[in-house]
Amino acid sequence: MRSREPAIGFVSLGCPKAVVDAEHILTRLRAEGYRTVGDYGEADLVIINTCGFIDSAVAESMDAIGEAVQANGRVIVTGCLGSRAQTIRARYPEVLAITGPHDDEAVMAAVHRHLPRPHDPFLDLVPAQGIRLTPAHYAYLKISEGCNHRCRFCIIPALRGPLVSRPLGEIVKEAEALVRAGVREIVIVAQDTSAYGMDLKHRVAFVGGRAVRMSFLELVRELGRLGVWVRLHYVYPYPAVEDILPLLDTEGVLPYLDVPFQHAHPRILQAMLRPAGQVHPLKCIQSWRAIRPDLVIRSTFIVGFPGETEEEFSALLDFVGDAGIDRLGAFSYSPVEGAAANALPDAVPEEIRDERLGRLMQHQAAISAARLAARVGQDYDVLIDAVTDDGLAGRSYAEAPDIDGIIYVQGKGRPGERVRARVTGSDTHDLFATAL
Ligand code: SF4
Which of 192, 302, 333 has the most ligand 1 atoms within 8 A of CB, as the residue to mutate? Predict the structure, then answer.
């Protein structure tokens, strides 16, 4: 009989990029014969995959470490906050090891050191697509790590290093394995998706025996051959985006772009040191929509960046309306330890930041409601995420998982199936439809 497999508790916090890191670590753990458990008491050791993006994420990560230390005592910390090892050690000197983000090697070395690997790894227990934390029908796929920009509010380049793109052949192979495993939607993530291949000087790779340049355009072309939905997140308004627009397709790489503009006023964009900060966001969206009228745009914005005046904030409000931003996430600016923006003068008082955030969200709610109302009467393929007591819950090409609204469909279907449905009603963020 096989001896008891060593058990590891795993907690993953943070963004989809952290989810991908977690999936890589979990896959390696399973491949080596470790099992994962959901109970600290049952675990021989606990790994906490942390987030360090903003102060509230740091606090959440610190609390998770504290809880694991108290409940289990044998804790390895990884992820973005792991880059601040001294801060963690000062509060929890007993943690066994601390590694930075995207460092499965160091995590596995720490696991081997503190919980030696079992002798009898049942490699065949690992599915070809690895271990995933998302539902079976969609998955995140990370195409690069790190970032070459220096946005003043962000410490990710310091935490994750410069841009390192994955070889195109490797990305396509991973995507194909996901499709073979039943994934019907692949969400592409990176710090800067449209910069793909710049670090590799767009050199030629071999994909399925074909010579292909490692560039954003060729990446989109290759992913468009997969026969499933592919959704692009974290796209910056570089000129290369216009080149991919004709390739977008509601059966392949979707006409949906997540473009984190963060602001729309040129002075604030320059103060933030945003990538493509010299681009005029409204003209950019108008030229994209002239090529692709069906293009859906999601964006995120920061209000109350140091020095932001009422006029500059109003320009942001106007932009959101004029550009018809379909989906929007917003944050009130908060200083992050180590960020260059902390040294900027003219901090906006907290009550004004919060008030601006409220106004932006209210403004967007009206825009969202109007844009959704305009979709009533149209037919969509809806990918079903869940079956509820009231029917089906899913999304069309215009809604990303987890962050956008839902389409509630009256009809029959199962998670992972696509159902053709006609939109019959709408509210502020969601749609209601009937299967055809
Ligand atoms: S583009 Fe800017 S915000 Fe995004 S990861 Fe790079 S530095 Fe941070």
Answer: 192
